[in-house]
C-alpha cells in the first residue's frame, strides 16, 4: 500500500498507452466512424429525396390520370353530341330532300297538267274555232266574230 | 475461504499485500505492474485490430462494440472540451477503458488468482511456504496506479494551463482569483493551490477508495462460508456499477479539468 517506484512504472506505462492510442488506435477508428456517419447521412437524405420524388411522381400521375379521364369523358360527350347532331342533321336533310323531291314531283305534275291543259285548250279552241268555222262558215265572217271566239277560248 | 492455519486477520492482510520486489522507495509492486500492463496491452491490441481494418463499410460485431465505446468517449469529450485537441480524446479513451479493465479484475473471485499464484510459486520453488506469495490482481487498489494516473493528469493540467494561458496568465489565475485585489494575493494563492492540488488527490483517492473498499468487502464475503455465494453475487452485481462509474468519473473529470485548464475564465 505504500507509494514506491511502482508509481514511476505505472506513469511510464500510462504515457506509452496514451501515446500508442493517440497514434495508432484513435485516428483510424474515429475516421471510419465519421466516414460512416457521413455515408449514412447521405444515404438517408438520398432516401428522403427519393421518397419525395416518388410522392411527387405519384401526385403527378394521379393528376394526369384525372385530367385524362376528364378529357376522355369530354371527348365521349362531344362524340355523342356530334353523333346525335349528325343523325338529326341527316334526318332533317332527308326530310328536306323528300319534301323537295315531292315538291318537284308535284310541280312537274302540275306543269305537265298545265301544259296538257294548255295544249288541250289550244286544240279545243282550234277545234271549236274549226267547228264553229265549219258551222258558221256559211254565214259568219271570221274576222267579225273573233272576239267572241277568243272569249270562249279563255273561258275553257 | 480461510485456508489452513490462517486467522481471518492474516487472511485479509495476505490478500491486501502486494507482491513486492526491492526495498524502500525503489521497491516495485510486480503484480500491479504485471496486471496493469497486461490489461493495457490487451486494450490496445484489441482496439488496434479494429483500427487496422476499420473502414466506413459494414462493421463487424467487435468493430461495432469498439466504435460504440469510441463514440461514447468522443461525445463526452465534445460535450465538455471545446476546441481542437489531438490528445484529449485518445487520453480519455485510454483512461476509461484501461481503468475499466483494471477495475474489472475485482469481479474475479478473490481467491482464484492469488491461490493459483501461491501454488505456482511454491511448485516452481521460489518460496518455501505458499503463503509467502503475495498476489493482488486489481491494480486500481494500489495507490501507485491511481496516483500515477492522476499525477499524469495533473501534469497535463499544468501543461495545458501554460500552453493556453501562458505562464503569466497561469500565474495571474493562481494569484488574482477568486479575489481580484493585490492585497489578497497570498490568500488567493493558498486557495488556488489547494484547488489545484485537490484535483489529482481527489482523482486518485476516489478511485482507490472505491475499489479498495469493494475489494475488502469481497474478501470479507469470501470468509462467510456457504453464504458467500449469494452475498458474492449481490455485491458483484452492485460492484459492476461501481467499476463502470469510477472509470467514467475518472475520464469525465480528466476532461473537465483539462477543459478548465485550457479555457479563459
Question: What would you say about this model in short?
Answer:
Chain B: Key component of the proton channel; it plays a direct role in the translocation of protons across the membrane. Chain A is mostly helical and 156 residues long.
Give an account of the 3D structure.
Chain B: Belongs to the ATPase A chain family. The complex is a heterodimer of chains A (156) and B (265). Chain A is an all-alpha fold and 156 residues long. In chain A, 90% of the residues lie in helices and 0% in strands. The N and C termini of chain A lie far apart (167 Å). The mean pLDDT of chain A is 88. With 265 residues, chain B is mainly alpha-helical. Chain B has one domain. Chain B has a two-stranded antiparallel sheet with strand order 1-2. The interface between A and B is large, with 33 and 50 residues.
Strand residue content of chain A: under 5%
Report the principal-axis shape of chain A: rod-shaped
Structural class of chain B: mainly alpha
| Number of separate domains of chain B | 1
Organism (chain B): Idiomarina baltica OS145
Pfam family, one (chain B): ATP-synt_A
Subcellular location (chain B): Cell membrane; Membrane
Transmembrane segments (chain B): 25-45, 87-105, 143-162, 207-227, 233-258
Amino acid at each position: 500500500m505504500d507509494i514506491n517506484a511502482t508509481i514511476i512504472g505505472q506513469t511510464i506505462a500510462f504515457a506509452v498507452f496514451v501515446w500508442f492510442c493517440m497514434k495508432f488506435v484513435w485516428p483510424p477508428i474515429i475516421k471510419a466512424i465519421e466516414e460512416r456517419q457521413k455515408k449514412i447521412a447521405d444515404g438517408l437524405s438520398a432516401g428522403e429525396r427519393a421518397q419525395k420524388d416518388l410522392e411527387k411522381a405519384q401526385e403527378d400521375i394521379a393528376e394526369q390520370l384525372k385530367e385524362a379521364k376528364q378529357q376522355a369523358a369530354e371527348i365521349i360527350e362531344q362524340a355523342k353530341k356530334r353523333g346525335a347532331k349528325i343523325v338529326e342533321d341527316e334526318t332533317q336533310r332527308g326530310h328536306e330532300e323528300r319534301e323537295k323531291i315531292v315538291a318537284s314531283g308535284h310541280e312537274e305534275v302540275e306543269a305537265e297538267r298545265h301544259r296538257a291543259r294548255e295544249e288541250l285548250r289550244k286544240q279545243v279552241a282550234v277545234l271549236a274555232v274549226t267547228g264553229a268555222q265549219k258551222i258558221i262558215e256559211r254565214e259568219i265572217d271570221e274576222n267579225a266574230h273573233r272576239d267572241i271566239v277568243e272569249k270562249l277560248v279563255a273561258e275553257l | 475461504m480461510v485456508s489452513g492455519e490462517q486467522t481471518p486477520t492474516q487472511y485479509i492482510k495476505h490478500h491486501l499485500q502486494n507482491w513486492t520486489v526491492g526495498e524502500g522507495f525503489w521497491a516495485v509492486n510486480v503484480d500491479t505492474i504485471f496486471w496493469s500492463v497486461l490489461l493495457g496491452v490487451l486494450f490496445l491490441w484489441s482496439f488496434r485490430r479494429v483500427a487496422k481494418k476499420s473502414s466506413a463499410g459494414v462493421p463487424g460485431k467487435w468493430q461495432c462494440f469498439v466504435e460504440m465505446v469510441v463514440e461514447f468517449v468522443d461525445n463526452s469529450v465534445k460535450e465538455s472540451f471545446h476546441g481542437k485537441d489531438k490528445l484529449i480524446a485518445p487520453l480519455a479513451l485510454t483512461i476509461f477503458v484501461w481503468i475499466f479493465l483494471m477495475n474489472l479484475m475485482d469481479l474475479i473471485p478473490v481467491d482464484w488468482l492469488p491461490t493459483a499464484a501461491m501454488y505456482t510459486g511454491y511448485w516452481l520453488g521460489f518460496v518455501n511456504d505458499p503463503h509467502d506469495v503475495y498476489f493482488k490482481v486489481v491494480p486500481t487498489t494500489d495507490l501507485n496506479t491511481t496516483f500515477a494516473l492522476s499525477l499524469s493528469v495533473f501534469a497535463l493540467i499544468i501543461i495545458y494551463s501554460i500552453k493556453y494561458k501562458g505562464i503569466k496568465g497561469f500565474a495571474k489565475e493562481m494569484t488574482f482569483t477568486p479575489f481580484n485585489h493585490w492585497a489578497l494575493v497570498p490568500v488567493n494563492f493558498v486557495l488556488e493551490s489547494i484547488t489545484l492540488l485537490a484535483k489529482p488527490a481527489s482523482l486518485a483517492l476516489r478511485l482507490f477508495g472505491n475499489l479498495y473498499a469493494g475489494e475488502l468487502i469481497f474478501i470479507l464475503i469470501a470468509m462467510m462460508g456457504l453464504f458467500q455465494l449469494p452475498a458474492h453475487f449481490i455485491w458483484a452485481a452492485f460492484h459492476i456499477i461501481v467499476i463502470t462509474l469510477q472509470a467514467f468519473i475518472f475520464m469525465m473529470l480528466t476532461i473537465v479539468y483539462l477543459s478548465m485548464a485550457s479555457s479563459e475564465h
